[in-house]
Design brief:
Length: 266
C-alpha cells in the first residue's frame, strides 16, 4: 500500500474511532508495526493527530481531516453531486462557492460545461459566469478559464480546507450580491435544523455567502446527513435545495421536504 493511501486510511480510522492503535492498524493495513509508527509520527508532525503510547488520537473535540486527505472519500458520489449542482446554474449568473471537496467538484463541472466555456462572453460583453469564492484551490482551478470572471475574497487561509476567513473575507462578502450560493458542509442536521461546518471562521463566511444569495444550494453526500459539527452556517429555512446521493433515506427526504428544502438525488 502506498504511503498516501496508508495515511488516508489511518486518518479515516482516527476520524471514525477517535483513536488508533499501532498493532491494530498494522494488521488492518497489512504492513509492519514499524511502518505504522513512522506514519503516525509524520502525521503528528503535520498536526493531523496526536501521538500516544502505542498509537494516536484525534485532535480536539471536533475532528477534521485535511482537504487533501478527504478528496478520495465518497469520490463518485461527490462527482455526481457536482455535475447535478452545475446543472442548476444558468449562464451569466453570479455564483458563490464555499470550499470543500464536494463544492470543488461543482467548480470542476462548471469549468467544462460547454455553454459556459464555449464562448468568451454573453450578450453585452459580460462573462459567461462570475464565481465568488473564499477557497484558494477552487480559485486556482477556475482562474485559467477566461470565460469565467473569478472573484476571490481576502482573508487568512486555513491549511485544513484552503478557505479564507476573517474580517477581510467578511468585508468582501458584505459588498456583493449573488444569484446562487453553493455551500459545502460537514453536517446537515434535520433535528437541529441547520447546516454546520467544523470551524467557526468558515461558518461565518459561508453564512454571509448564503445571506447574499437569491437561492441557496447545499451540496453534500448522504454521509453528512444527520451528523453534527461544531459551528452553524445557517438554518434550514435559508436552504432552497439539497443535492445529495441516492443513499439518503426516504424518511430524511420527507423531513427535508417538510422543512421546505427540495431534495435532488443523484
Amino acid at each position: 500500500m502506498a504511503r498516501d493511501a496508508r495515511w488516508d486510511a489511518l486518518l479515516e480510522l482516527v476520524g471514525k474511532h477517535g483513536r488508533v492503535e499501532v498493532e491494530e492498524a498494522a494488521a488492518a493495513l497489512a504492513v509492519s508495526a514499524a511502518t505504522i509508527r513512522r506514519d503516525l509520527d509524520q502525521l503528528a508532525e503535520q498536526h493531523l493527530l496526536t501521538r500516544t503510547r502505542g498509537g494516536a488520537v484525534a485532535h480536539g473535540v471536533s475532528y477534521e481531516l485535511a482537504l487533501r486527505y478527504k478528496a478520495g472519500r465518497h469520490a463518485p458520489e461527490k462527482q455526481a453531486i457536482g455535475r447535478a449542482v452545475c446543472g442548476l446554474v444558468a449562464v451569466g449568473e453570479v455564483v458563490g462557492l464555499t470550499g470543500g471537496t464536494t463544492v470543488t467538484e461543482v467548480a470542476r463541472a462548471l469549468a467544462v460545461r460547454p455553454d459556459i466555456v464555449g464562448e468568451t462572453t454573453v450578450a453585452g460583453g459580460q462573462p459567461t459566469l462570475t464565481v465568488v469564492t473564499n477557497a484558494l484551490n477552487i480559485a486556482s482551478e477556475l482562474a485559467m478559464r477566461p470565460q469565467i470572471k473569478m472573484v476571490v475574497t481576502g482573508g487568512v487561509a486555513r491549511p485544513q480546507s484552503y478557505e479564507l476567513t476573517g474580517p477581510l473575507a467578511v468585508g468582501v462578502m458584505n459588498e456583493i450580491t449573488l444569484d446562487v450560493a453553493v455551500l459545502g458542509v460537514n453536517a446537515i442536521d434535520i433535528d437541529r435544523g441547520g447546516a454546520y461546518v467544523h470551524h467557526e471562521g468558515e461558518a461565518s463566511v459561508n453564512r454571509l455567502l448564503a445571506e447574499r444569495a437569491q437561492r441557496v444550494v447545499v451540496a453534500a453526500d448522504s454521509s453528512k446527513i444527520g451528523k453534527r459539527a461544531f459551528a452553524r452556517v445557517c438554518d434550514l429555512g435559508l436552504v432552497d435545495v439539497l443535492v445529495t446521493d441516492s443513499n439518503v433515506t426516504a424518511e430524511a427526504r420527507d423531513r427535508f421536504g417538510d422543512a421546505g428544502v427540495q431534495v435532488i438525488t443523484v
